[in-house]
User: Fold these one by one.
Assistant:
Number 1:
Amino acid sequence: MTSDPKLIAAQAQVEAARTRLFHTLGEVQNRLKPANIAQNAMDSATTSLTAAAHRGADAARARPYAAAGIAGGVVLFLARGWVCKLFRRKRKQDATQAVAGG
């Protein structure tokens, strides 16, 4: 072993840099594990959806009639097949009664 202080200091710096590098590599490997990536994606999605739900609830509280109108429109849109069947059935019954009565 040498007793040169510059050489000893340089070796200590090399060891410190190597330790930092291996620590960083360990962190990168941990972040790139599929389970951790999936968990981070789920956490991010949950946070985003929760924030959107809170914004929607705040908007509905601020404008309840507009929110009710939009909700009603969405319900009618989703139930459009059922509503159309009701109107067709009613028209068919009216036509049948008109032919039978007339």
Number 2:
Amino acid sequence: MFAVDPTSIEASCIGGNIAMNAGGKKAVLWGTALDNLASWRMVTPDAEWLGGGRIGHNPGKIHDAEMASFELRYFAADGKTPLRTERLDIPGQKFRKEGLGKDVTDKFLSGLPGVQKEGTDGLITSARWIVHRMPEHTRTVCLEFFGHAKDAVPSIVEIKDYMFEEQKRSGVLLAGLEHLDDRYLKAVGYATKSKKGNGGLPKMVLVGDIVGIQQSARSLGRQAAHQGAGDSLCEQKAARRPANQDCARFAGY
């Protein structure tokens, strides 16, 4: 499983994913581009080649590592003549702002070249990635909120708290969580799936992937029901994609 899954996946490129530190709904479980990046190669504004690589990858989310180390090797314009080598040792917690996850305001990112710089310090040409084994059992749950959009916010917090406890109890994981507001729903011609809204368009939709047993997906739906959500469950791989095709470009299906 390639973890980086941004909403622009149909148009984005590998270099762009690194330059933006792209994430997507799979970032809940596997992190953003930075967390899954093993090495990359780029051209600097000084017409030098730079090969960057992670030393001793976790492999996992970078903020879980006590220290994240990178080797930076610079070459002349021919791409072969060595110029210099640098090493960056950065505490893992420096890459995440507590309570926010990815911090889009930190473009410097502890001086790490290329990543999250939006292309301002070089052109990324290639990369190597950490990939993950896809869990054997996945359930997708779709929660539709028909009241006020703000009613979905407590559910997002409750779902994350519930799944954290469920992970400790039975090993079930929340592999992805994506929200779509009514503007996106209108843009993609979303078709309401539950009966709660009497066919009307929801104010917000949450789409979540649960890696584990069916009962946990059912429980997640009940967890959000009192916040005004209708829920539907897609259990088989063949059924999950058609059930979510309305929001494919935004939810990553």
Number 3:
Amino acid sequence: MISNNYAYFDIRYALITHKTVIEQSGGLAGVKNQGYLESVLDHIQNDGYYPELVDKITHLVHSVIKIHAFNDGNKRAGIALGSYFLELNGHDYSVLKFTAEMENIVVWVAENKIDKDLLKELIESILYEDDYSEELKLKLISAISN
């Protein structure tokens, strides 16, 4: 089951984005495993697994960080690609907030302090709420304190 309701980008865009991230902020250029990245970009198009925007962007960001498809800049690329995905899908109003909030969150994801489920809750809150709920704040504090 492939989605027709969302806009996507291809591997070329992802590679160009990563190259730009490295050129602008430094680091080691290059790709370790393009196939992993292609797989992520294909999977988010499957509405059976990722039916909603939050599901898709969570998988995109989490996977880019965790699969280490790039030699360097995986966290930064995850934020950049997630931001672009939001923009493509009419959520350009939330890109600045998403980018700012994700700067710390991606570090905690990389350190295995934030799992994919908590990441999804955080992204959902960033997109649809003014601030994290008290319950979500407590979950975040508990996760990063361990």
Number 4:
Amino acid sequence: MELAERRELIRKKWKPKFRRFLAWEFWKFERRDSYRRPKGNDNKMRVEVKGYPPRVKVGYRTRREIRGLHPSGLLPVTVSNKEELERLDPKEHIVYISSSVGLRKRLEIVKAAQEKGLRVVGW
């Protein structure tokens, strides 16, 4: 699949914001709005009553061709030294620098990646 086709598929994909039950009512849930499966016997969200947020289901999963890709359509790779850049292809990969790498080494990795033509994200 070409890069332009992958980008188009990524752009088109849509997934709802899965909310915790009653996150719209309680401040403590608004702050920590991570999804939790509704388990109550009379829970309207569990029964999937109209007007309540959608539940997580396998049908919302992304297509296999674009799963795990960066929005640019490239495959993200985490790098922690310059030697790891040698195996990467600028047309296929986009680089994330590991969080445990210090500033001096980070600048060296960025410079080496730019020389090779790789894109570095969020450094």
